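Input chain follows. Return structure tokens only.
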Amino acid sequence: MSSSIISTANLISHQVTIYLGIPIFILGIIGGCLNFIALVSLKTFRQSSCAFCLTFMSLVDVASLTTGLLTFIMMYGFDIDWTEQSKFYCIFREGFVHICILIPLTCFCLATIDQFLATCSSIRCQQLCNIKLARRLCLIFTLVWFLYGIAFFTSYDLVIIPSTGQVDCIVINGVFEQYFQTFHVLILLGVLPISITVLFGCLAYRNVKQLSHRTIPLVRRELDKQLTVMVLMQVVFNFFAITPYTIINAIMLNPNIIDSPVGNAIMSCARLLSIIFLYSCFAVSMIRF
């Protein structure tokens, strides 16, 4: 019975990775190109700080899908693990993927905050929404996350597992592994971006409902409404895409669950599904336009 459950969980993981992961990857890459062209070609969007954050986010999303999801599909869908074939790729991929996840999440948080400020009635708040500040913030956070990525580059290595004799790309720093499983996964990738985007998304929605009562140009009013709808759609999707990943990783911190072979197989399958959904928010962020 146990072996049947384990084999079923492995089969589900394999099938989902192929038949769900590949369409998400293809749609994400195509959507990224279309999204970039749409945002850059329209003058109205080129002058918007919120649109700039979304454009920059889309470009990094392409790198995240290419380096992260594609390797993930090859690993769990076709049993081809590129990280086991090259020490450089093992170290580079683990660090670069998380950098390319943190940057889009940060850009989207900035876009949500920017849209809240842009729809405020306060002139001082509206003055904070300028494209120069948006460019500086995106650049600063990009540098911060690349410096943060050094911890990943120095904590992964290609080693031989004594029990199996096979080569594997794993964390060699026990302290970093504990930090990664708790603060990085649960807070930086989960609670923090969800909390910020949901909070400021709701505030921006409240402000937009009051736009009709303000004396502002019609073009500006329609642009704010359009950008707010875009942001709110992404907020909702991100919430449902990131929350399962956060919850499952929190559950897997309980050693009693993963010590059981059956429990480990089921949770590994659930975690794999949650990772696919996590990557889907980067693909949808490109094709929503």
